[in-house]
Amino acid sequence: MEDQEKKIKEAVSEFFEKMTMPVLDVAVEFSFVEKGEEKTEVISLDIKIDDPPVLIGQQGQTLFEIQRILRMVLNKKLGKTFYLNLDIDGYKKKKIEYLKYLVKDYADSVAMTGKEKELLPMSAYERRIVHAELSQRTDVKTESRGEGSERHIVITPK
Asked: I need a surface site. Which of 24, 45, 110, 130 has the fewest CB within 10 A?
């Protein structure tokens, strides 16, 4: 794993240097996700750079596109397929914490008033987080509505 971590750090540094965004630090974490009987490796990277907003973009869109491209580069460089979870200066982590806090607050309001609440449109990744966060609640349920970039979650009472 140490050799693989070293290769990843070198490839990531080279990737961002070519974008004229030198990396200050790269944290690498390895884990696995199970789908049925199949295990797939997940490589999580948290990168520190001087100007994070440029690479994060509006609502993290640039970050997700960079993640997609970087995954292809690393798949080729390492000679294997895996999931990549790229975070820049903890953006995703903070966003997930905020989403969880927000939807718990919304769910409490729906449970108390009995009136549904609509969240703003969000990515499939963010919708998955919301559905998972509220899935154990017995007083509310979630559903996705809308199409394409207008797809959003509605929290309704049970």
From this structure: 24
Burial of 16 (0-12, 13-18, 19+ CB in 10 A): buried
For residue 117, the number of C-alpha atoms closer than 13 Å in the C-beta half-sphere is 16
Query: Whole-prediction pTM value?
Result: 0.79
- Fold held by 93-157: Ribosomal Protein S8; Chain: A, domain 1 (3.30.1370)
Residues of the chain with CATH 3.30.1370.50: 93-157
Instruction: Say whether domain 2-89 belongs to CATH 3.40.50.2300.
Output: no
Mean pLDDT (10-residue bins), the chain, 158 residues? 89 94 94 86 94 90 94 93 94 93 96 96 91 95 95 96
Q: Record the tokens describing residue 154, joined without a space.
A: 């509605």
Q: What is the 3-class SS of 45-102, one letter each residue?
A: EEEEECCHHHHHCHHHHHHHHHHHHHHHHHHHHHCCCCEEEEEECCHHHHHHHHHHHH
